[in-house]
């Protein structure tokens, strides 16, 4: 069974429809990348999956269960944003533990183990006692990813997580994310980017969005070799 099913999802802000009927199935453990030009609805779609926005019409299912009405914390998702959104007054450890402390029923010891495991995966253990302002941009973004791992989500959502990093760090962090997916076999990842190289190297499948609609879905090779339209060809086939 597909892990995530989107059925004719629509979203309007006031009178303006920005997601215009998106249907898509994402398999368990799949790395799905949403690409498309600025303003096509990538972030909105991600926010609908996360539950940060209400769906205007359509059905969203996780593991066969309709989740339209579930709050974000009940969906088992973790989201990593473009801006790191760490709490400035909390240490790295506290930032990473915070999501778990909000959920009831985790012992201090369990929280500590999960934070340390995530910190080891991302090689940020030595920074656990620091404040965000004592870290570089790249380190902060690793903490944001570490915080998501700590929550042990069934779905990871990334919204252009690398776009604030310089070129070298972007490559290093991209490789980190690929490794992370490999080591978390059953965790579905949805990753938004407008960077073709990121899309081509990370994705199991790419979903090309255009003006609130799915233009084409396929593996990077399928889209590269058999684009359905000039739009897709232009987006996938012309490396910058
Ligand atoms: P992308 O992430 O692909 O750049 P977005 O999902 O951010 O695109 O935005 C898609 C469209 O929806 C844009 O036209 C944007 O202005 C509009 N939009 C997004 N969020 C809101 C909002 N809260 N209120 C009104 N319009 C919005
Ligand atoms: Mg966006």
TrEMBL record:
Its main location: membrane. GO terms for cellular component: ATP-binding cassette (ABC) transporter complex, substrate-binding subunit-containing; maltose transport complex. It comes from the Bacteria. Keywords: ATP-binding, Nucleotide-binding, Transport. Residues 4-236 form the ABC transporter domain. It is a peripheral membrane protein. Coiled coil: none annotated. One of its GO terms (molecular function) is ATP binding. It is found in: Cell inner membrane. Belongs to the ABC transporter superfamily. This is Glycerol-3-phosphate ABC transporter ATPase. The lineage of its organism: Bacteria, Pseudomonadati, Pseudomonadota, Alphaproteobacteria, Hyphomicrobiales. The chain holds residues 1 to 240 of 336 of the full protein.
